Amino acid sequence: MTTHTVTQADQKFNQLTARLKTAVSEYEEARALYTKVVIRWNAAKVKLDTASTELASGIAEFVDGKKESCK
């Protein structure tokens, strides 16, 4: 190999290495964001489930109260 060819190969290797590092950084950033979204999603789901249960309980109490007042 000539010096010119080795230099070109080195340059190409450096370019590909830089692109790989960028891709890895972007992947890690996206993964961290995804983790945050999943945590928020799960917290919101718990709140929604709790509110839904409380609503159903309140409706049941209301219906029972109406039944009692009709007797």
Shape: rod-shaped
Order of helices and strands: H
Beta-strand segment tally: 0
Mean pLDDT: 93
Structural class determined from secondary elements: mainly alpha
Strand percentage lies at: under 5%
Give the low-pLDDT segments. Answer: none
How many helices? The count is 1
Instruction: Give me the Rg, rounded.
Output: 30 Å
Span between termini? 101 Å
Share in helix: over 70%
Question: What attributes does this structure have?
Answer:
71 residues; single chain; mainly alpha
Topology:
Elements: H1 3-70
Describe this structure as you would to a colleague.
This protein has 71 residues and is mainly α. The protein is 96% helix and 0% strand. The chain is built from one helix and no strands. The protein has one helix at 3-70. The mean pLDDT is 93.
Please outline what is shown here.
This protein is mainly α. Helices cover 96% and strands 0% of the residues.
